[in-house]
Amino acid sequence: MGIEEQLTTVLAKAVIEADKAESVKELETIRVSYLGKKGEITSVLKGVKDVAPEQRPVIGKKANEVRDELTTLLSHKKERLEKEALERQLEKETIDVTLPGKQVSKGQTHVLTQIMEEIEDLFLGMGYQIIEGNEVESDHYNFERVNLPQNHPARDMQDTFYITPDVLLRTHTSPIQARTLESHDFSKGPLKMISPGKVYRRDTDDATHSHQFHQIEGMVIAENITMADLKGTLELLAKKMFGEDREIRLRPSYFPFTEPSVEVDVSCFKCGGTGCNVCKGTGWIEILGAGMTHPNVLEMSGVDSTKYSGFAFGLGPDRIAMLKYGVDDIRNFYLNDQRFLKQFKRKG
C-alpha cells in the first residue's frame, strides 16, 4: 500500500474515532494520537525517504490535506462537545426565578442625626439659618470672643485638645456665632441662626460623658429681643422633642457669654411631673442652658449693645436622645452596634 493510500486510511480511521468521542478530553487524546509529533500521520511520513524524489511533493501535499481536514473535523467536534457540556451544566444548575428573593435590608440615618435633623427642621420653619463651621478653631474665637478671656476660671470646665497653644478642637459651636455676628449686616434684618456640629472636651468617658459629642447652639440678635422671646422659643422646642403637653421652667444660672443666664428644665415626659426615676423625683429634667446674649459678646463683634439685644441657647442632641429614648449610656451611640441602632427607626 502506497503512502497516499495509508494517509487516506489514517484519515478514515480518525474520522470514525472522532465521531465516537463523547468528551473534550477523549477528543484531545485522538488529536494527539494522529496529529502529534509521534502520531500516526508522522509515522506514515517516515516512509517518504524510500519513494522517488519526484513523488515526494505529491505525498507532502496529500499529508497537508489530511492534516487540515482532520484538524477542521476535530475543531468542529470540540465546539459541539463543549456546547453540549454547557447545556447539560445549565440544565443542572437551573435557577427557579419564581422563588422569592432575599430581602435587602435598608439602612437608616443614625439616631443622633435624626434628632439633629428634627431640630433643624423646626428652626428652619421659624426662619433660622443653619450655619456650620470648622471643628479646629483658634483660642481667640473659641474662648475670648465669647467672653472667656485668658485665665478665666470657666475655661476649666471646657478643657479641650490643643494642637498648638493658640489652635484647638472647639469646645462648643459658639465660635460660629462670633464669626457670624461680626459679618452680619443688620441693615438687612435680624440674625437668627443655629449652629450644629461635633465638639470636643477632655471629659472622662463614662455613661453620661464623652470626649466627643454633638451640640446645637442658637442665637437671635435684633432690636427689642427679650427673655419672653427666649422662653417662647424654648417652649416650642420642648414640645417638639418631648410632646405637646410639656412645660418648661427657667432657673437662674451662670454662663460667661449670657447675662442673665438660665438653666432650662422640661416637665418629665415619663411621669408627667409627679416624680419618677427619670426625673429623680422632682418632676423636671434639665435639658439645656440659655440666656440673653452678653453685651460684651455683641460689642466685641462690632454690634451696638445699646441698640441690639438677643438670646442664645445651647443643647446637646446626645442628651436629648438619651432622655427621649431612655438610653442610659451615651457610649452606645458611638459603638456602631446594629442591634442597638436598629431600634430607632425614622418615622414616615
From TrEMBL:
**Residues at which Mg(2+) binds:** 259
Q: Looking at the Swiss-Prot or TrEMBL record, what is one Pfam family this protein matches? A: tRNA-synt_2d
Set out the biological process GO terms recorded for this chain's protein: phenylalanyl-tRNA aminoacylation
Top EC category: ligase
Q: Where in the cell is it found?
A: Cytoplasm
Chief localisation class = cytoplasm
Q: Which InterPro entries match?
A: aa-tRNA-synth_II (IPR006195), aa-tRNA-synth_II/BPL/LPL (IPR045864), Phe-tRNA-synth_IIc_asu (IPR004529), Phe-tRNA_ligase_II_N (IPR004188), Phe_tRNA_ligase_alpha1_bac (IPR022911), Phenylalanyl-tRNA_Synthase (IPR002319), tRNA-bd_arm (IPR010978)
Q: Which UniProt keywords apply?
A: Aminoacyl-tRNA synthetase, ATP-binding, Cytoplasm, Ligase, Magnesium, Metal-binding, Nucleotide-binding, Protein biosynthesis
User: What terms describe the molecular function in GO for this protein?
Assistant: ATP binding; catalytic activity, acting on a protein; magnesium ion binding; phenylalanine-tRNA ligase activity; transferase activity; tRNA binding
The Aminoacyl-transfer RNA synthetases class-II family profile domain sits at 111-323
Enzyme Commission numbers on file: 6.1.1.20
Instruction: Give the cofactors, semicolon-separated.
Output: Mg(2+)
Cofactor binding: number and manner:
Binds 2 magnesium ions per tetramer.
Give the catalysed reaction(s), semicolon-separated: tRNA(Phe) + L-phenylalanine + ATP = L-phenylalanyl-tRNA(Phe) + AMP + diphosphate + H(+)
This protein's GO CC annotations: cytoplasm
Q: Which SUPFAM superfamilies match?
A: Class II aaRS and biotin synthetases (SSF55681), tRNA-binding arm (SSF46589)
Per UniProt, subunit arrangement is: Tetramer of two alpha and two beta subunits.
Q: Which PANTHER family match?
A: PHENYLALANINE--TRNA LIGASE, MITOCHONDRIAL, PHENYLALANYL-TRNA SYNTHETASE
Q: Which family does it belong to?
A: Belongs to the class-II aminoacyl-tRNA synthetase family. Phe-tRNA synthetase alpha subunit type 1 subfamily.
Q: Mind telling me what this protein is named?
A: Phenylalanine--tRNA ligase alpha subunit
Q: Which organism is it from?
A: Alkalibacterium olivapovliticus
